Amino acid sequence: MYQLNEKIKDLKPYDPIQGSYRVRLDANESFLPLPQALVEEAKAAVERTAFNRYPDPAARELCQAFAACYGVQPQQVVAGNGSDELITVLFEAFLEKGDAFATVEPDFSMYAFNGHLHEARHVAIPKGKDLRLDVEAVAAACQREQVKLLIFSNPCNPTSLVCGREVMRKLIDSLPDTLVVLDEAYMDFSDQSLLGEVEDHPNLLVLRTCSKAFGMAALRLGFAVCGKTLAGALRAVKSPYNVNSLSQAVGTAVLRRKGELDRALETILRSRDQLYAGLRELGEKYPGRFRLLPGETNFAALEMENGPELLGYLARQGVAIRYTGGLVRITCGAPEENKIVLEEMAGYFAQPERM
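Structure tokens predicted for Histidinol-phosphate aminotransferase:
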């Protein structure tokens, strides 16, 4: 009888929150639909698509649009079917069986999952009590364990904390023999990106996504930005037609409208400020119940002892948030959505048994 092999027989599928909720603030998506002008341009792009032909394997127009939007060179950009695909390809091709890779925990769970699937050796480096990255400790662990690939998010999911450019440069330069994969999925909400410095660091690869700030999670578009050698290798090992024609066409149309994207980003940042202000007020009213981390993402991260209990309570009120990496994570939403989650959290803390 056929049996699954050891590395996959006990695996469970990625399990995002399912079901119907009146407020969904669990997945860090943009709460904004694409502006109508962009929708119309996307429709026109779809109408021009040759459905009987394979997509451009290099996604040239899409990469050019991304490069122009972010001020990098097109030859530095490789498109993927979401940054998830690019992460999978990096583990698959840039590591050999038994090679060591490192993460800095807590962080995005799919890094460790990919390492396990590709039979690499996982070096999990813990963050300190402040949940910030200790450059010297990370560098020492990577050197000691002969780590071939170090991957982490900045700003971090789930902590929401960001490391500054100087800290990142110091870490990258201290590991010249290690591929440093810097996942900047949330960097649109901060200002410490290293996108413009990939040519200065031949061991650096930066990941970006259109799923958070740009409201295109449904398209599954991600990008790797790196120097010429890494970019060439990544193009050689990825699937030939990995980004479908529809995603290429719509993504190109949207990325060419930087003005609309910037205005949408400003709206999301105002929502974040509103959510943070409400959480600070809640913390003052119910001191000691949680600690709000000072993040630079599109979500708020809370340290609290009974996070899963809060999650369950809010779910019963029709509000979905996330508990991950030992933290409560709340995506900023539309003003009314922020108001609802804050009111329901206040109701949770106000219960007599929690006084």
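The mean pLDDT is 94.
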